[in-house]
Amino acid sequence: MALVGRYNSLQVVKHTDFGLYLDGGADGEILLPNRYVPKDIPHEVEDWLNVFVYLDSEDKLLATTEKPKVQVGEFASLKVKEINSIGIFLDWGLPKDLLLPFSEEKRQVRAGEYCVVHVFLDRRTRRITASAKVDRYLDKTPATYKVGQAVQVLVAAQTDLGFNAIIENAHWGLIHKNEVFKFLRSGMRETAYIKAVREDGKIALSLQPVGEQAVTGLQQQIVEALRKAGGSLPLSDRSEPEVIAQQFGVSKGNFKKAIGALYKAGKIVIRPDGISLAP
Question: 39-43, 158-162, 229-233 — which is least confidently predicted?
Fold first, then answer.
């Protein structure tokens, strides 16, 4: 049986004038229309193709080599394309838009806006469906992340404390205001770092490596930036935090630690108006 709403590796069973039929197991043969058949490699019977399987407008299984913006079981920020009496339709990169039923709406949205949703498969109809009530789909078991671990996050919403973000399609995390050194908005995907996992299960995130790892990586960035700039930069421990964040995307504290370490190692010279590579 094919996994609806996900990528599948399916075998070609026959060629027709309008496309390839693939073996869907218990689901029978699944059509890959000609417009989605890759032209750069031959496809013979018994060859295997990696395709995305979904339901067409007549609720028949269809395969495509186009890449949707999200699969079943994942979270994404999608643009509201249309709202009608049936529900809210989202642009997820395929010809048939993704339905967000009114019953799965968390807040009222308008056409052109973006909303963060979880994509699931309706057990009764097998239709791929979106839900803006993302809390119910997050992992409720305690997280096992390690401090300093790099994770992929989806920025979900701005709050008074900072930005809520979904970690690895599984847990809520918070990027505190004082950890934001670059432009952020809902829907952005970022590499973040686990800053703390509290006893109550809440997870603090940083957009820069934490601990000694942060300083070591930043030192390399600074040296490389100095080389590209011809050996000097108009930045020092007296520079404004916003200027440092714009250049390196880090806090002023981490920048001072990094240039201090480089100075002690004899790699740079620190002046009141900037830093330069040591002669």
Answer: 39-43
